[in-house]
Amino acid sequence: MSQRTYEKVIQDLIERRDKVLSGAINCIPAPFVRFRDTYVGVEKGKYVIVTASTKVGKTQIADYLFLYNPLFYAYNNRDKLRVKIFYFSLEMSAAEKYRQLMCHLLYILSQGHIRIDPKNLRSIHEDRPLPENIITLLQSDLYKSVLEFFEENVVILDSIRNPYGIYKWCKDYALKHGKMHTKLYEFKDKDGNVTETKEVRDFYEPEDPEEYRLVVVDHYRLFTLEKGKDLYNTIVSWSANHAIDLRNNYNYTIIGIQQQAASQESNENQKLNKLKPTIDGLGDCKATAQDVDMILGLYTPYRYGIREYEGYDITRFKDHIRFLEVLGGREGGGGDICPLYFDGAVNYFRELPLPQEKQSLEVIYQQISSLRIYSSISGIVNLVTVKLNESISTSKKWFWKIHKSWRGPRIRD
């Protein structure tokens, strides 16, 4: 006799408790420590939307939380979990995503000493070719190890652009690497007589219970329209049907990136100081808010000339500060805000000290002041001073130091 639903739930609670007691995990912890009471990290079977106005950094924060952090955590904890990330990049090519990753790796593995943006990485200026020793560093054992791990566990798809195509790809992978169990369900009439018996889905069993499967879609406005549907109904088709099915029946973690409507930055909203991302401000299709477990919004007060926000001096941070907020969630937490240091050149976020921690903030201000645009590529070479014969050991020392102070993801070979 099959278990009743409540018995299955209790059994799951017991198993999850036992996992934690044994040193295993039930989620990939978020990189922002103080914010973990609100956003604990990546859990299986959840649907999250990340939203912001145009060019605020919604893709970058989504990549930091749902691409880099899970990947690095899995790299460093192979005995605890595996990850498989299907990244449907509707805006950028796969090559562009790899270049962003390389810039990020160079930065974090050098404790900020190597700060090269994607433009300089691809030698866009005729008088600033990328230093040969940076190429050599990227080809060194440590970097190759991370990049190969990325390639083995992340699939960047820039050619599948319609909701059903995305759904089919993910469902096919789930059925190839697991089994959908079925059961017989009896349909009865009003008198209790069985009128029909059908085989229906019961539960999904993955071949690797410790594999976290993430689906990232960037971003909803760029969906190819499904036949006979406008953009609104195309998004509804994905969110209310396909995304929910992948979450509920195949235990995928879904991350949707969705822009705020242009009207959210209107002159009227500026006058009323209503510029933060909101659920009502979701662009193209507000109905997605009904489907998700959590909505994360990213905000930059600097864009609007705001001088002080949440106790922080925006005039000193300029464009290097962002505020991550839980706009809504099924388990509460709406309105909680996480202040972040932001460096868009290398896709890096760091949880800021509290406003009253003046000495710690001064360190951040000095770091921002030290950032400069190099007039020649030789400036980068001189600043970096890469010693190739020490690249692996030195990078590891740097990174352990940065991990201890910045609480970011750690990497080891």
Summarize this entry quickly:
With 413 residues, this protein is of the alpha/beta class. It has helices at 5-21, 58-76, 94-109, 118-121, 132-138, 141-153, 163-176, 231-250, 267-271, 314-317, 358-370, 377-384, 391-406, and strands at 28-29, 41-42, 47-52, 82-89, 154-157, 178-188, 194-206, 211-218, 253-259, 294-299, 308-309, 312-313, 321-329, 337-343, 348-351.
What descriptors fit this protein?
single chain; 413 residues; alpha/beta; nine-stranded mixed beta sheet; two-stranded antiparallel ribbon; 13 helices; 38% helix
Write the layout of secondary structure elements.
Blueprint: H1 5-21, E1 28-29, E2 41-42, E3 47-52, H2 58-76, E4 82-89, H3 94-109, H4 118-121, H5 132-138, H6 141-153, E5 154-157, H7 163-176, E6 178-188, E7 194-206, E8 211-218, H8 231-250, E9 253-259, H9 267-271, E10 294-299, E11 308-309, E12 312-313, H10 314-317, E13 321-329, E14 337-343, E15 348-351, H11 358-370, H12 377-384, H13 391-406
Parallel strand pairs: 3-9, 3-10, 4-5, 4-8, 8-9
Antiparallel strand pairs: 1-2, 6-7, 10-13, 11-12, 13-14, 14-15
Helix pairs in contact: 7-8
Which bin fits the share of residues in helices? 25-40%
Give the class from helix and strand content and strand pairing: alpha/beta
Q: What fraction strand? A: 15-25%
Radius of gyration: 23 Å
Explain what this protein looks like in three dimensions.
By secondary structure, the protein is α/β, with parallel strands linked by helices. It is 38% helix and 22% strand. The chain contains 13 helices and 15 strands. It has helices at 5-21, 58-76, 94-109, 118-121, 132-138, 141-153, 163-176, 231-250, 267-271, 314-317, 358-370, 377-384, 391-406; strands at 28-29, 41-42, 47-52, 82-89, 154-157, 178-188, 194-206, 211-218, 253-259, 294-299, 308-309, 312-313, 321-329, 337-343, 348-351. It has a nine-stranded mixed sheet, sandwiched between helices. The protein has a two-stranded antiparallel ribbon with strand order 1-2. A two-stranded antiparallel sheet has the order 6-7. Helix 7 packs parallel to helix 8. It is globular and about 80 Å long. The termini are far apart. The model is unreliable at 373-409 (pLDDT under 50).
